[in-house]
Design brief:
This protein is mainly α and 246 residues long. The protein has helices at residues 4-21, 25-34, 39-60, 64-71, 73-91, 95-111, 125-142, 146-156, 160-184, 191-213, 219-242.
Length: 246
């Protein structure tokens, strides 16, 4: 069974952050958990909570059906990509993915410096499919694809409400592909899944608390604090990869 003292606070803090900011559960929980365990275990621990949180998010979105009709290749091919990525995670040495996770987190932290475009761009269906496949691959091996979302939004000037709805659906479909990948390798079981199910009520309570306090929180200060934490975690993951004995 995963360490209760370490793992449960990480899941609850990440869920609270997601509720307060509207995003961030896998982005925060995955690198924090990887500080103390293998990336495969960290992903297993977050799968069920992430699916649950994303279902809450999708149900609260008024335009998810419109987003699905317009951008369906993204969530569709995210399933395929995440299934392939999970196969890679389960059949290859996972240690390089620790470094990849750190680089993806740093990519997210730097992505808002990009200028982007000033008007909305149309992306053909094959481009959306390729983008969805890439998102899925990242989800499968490191459980995070936030920087690509930010870059895509900047480069296409996608309407914010459609962007949020599209990527909430894509997060959910990526989890579907991951679960299918673990099941296909008879790996969707064990103490991580048991722990995730037992602690799910506390994680959902933390999400609810974050949502309730969203209007009372200084969002900008909270985002700055989150960025500082992510910088520290990403740099420590790189150090861990360079010096495995740490």
């Amino acid at each position: 069974m995963p360490d209760l003292v370490f793992t449960l606070p990480v899941l609850m803090i990440a869920a609270f952050a997601h509720g307060a900011l509207g995003f961030g559960f896998p982005l925060l929980s995955t690198p924090l958990l990887v500080l103390g365990m293998e990336i495969r275990s960290a992903i297993l621990l977050t799968l069920i909570p992430t699916v649950t949180i994303n279902l809450f998010s999708i149900l609260s979105e008024a335009r998810w059906k419109e987003a699905l009709l317009r951008f369906w290749p993204i969530p569709t091919f995210t399933i395929i990509g995440s299934f392939i990525g999970t196969q890679l995670l389960l059949t290859t040495d996972p240690s390089p993915y620790r470094l990849l996770l750190a680089l993806v987190v740093i990519g997210y932290l730097l992505s808002d410096k990009l200028p982007g475009t000033k008007k909305e761009r149309h992306v053909p269906a094959w481009g959306l499919a390729l983008f969805g496949l890439t998102l899925g691959l990242l989800a499968g091996v490191v459980n995070v694809f936030a920087p690509l979302i930010v870059i895509f939004a900047l480069e296409t000037r996608m309407k914010p409400e459609l962007m949020v709805a599209t990527f909430n659906v894509s997060f959910l479909t990526s989890k579907t592909g991951q679960i299918a990948g673990f099941v296909s390798r008879d790996a969707f079981h064990g103490p991580e899944i048991t722990f995730a199910l037992l602690t799910l009520p506390l994680v959902i309570a933390s999400l609810w608390l974050g949502i309730r306090l969203r209007k009372r929180i200084d969002v900008e200060s909270y985002k700055k604090a989150l960025r500082i934490v992510l910088w520290i975690v990403a740099l420590y993951l790189i150090i861990q990869w360079l010096v495995p004995t740490l």
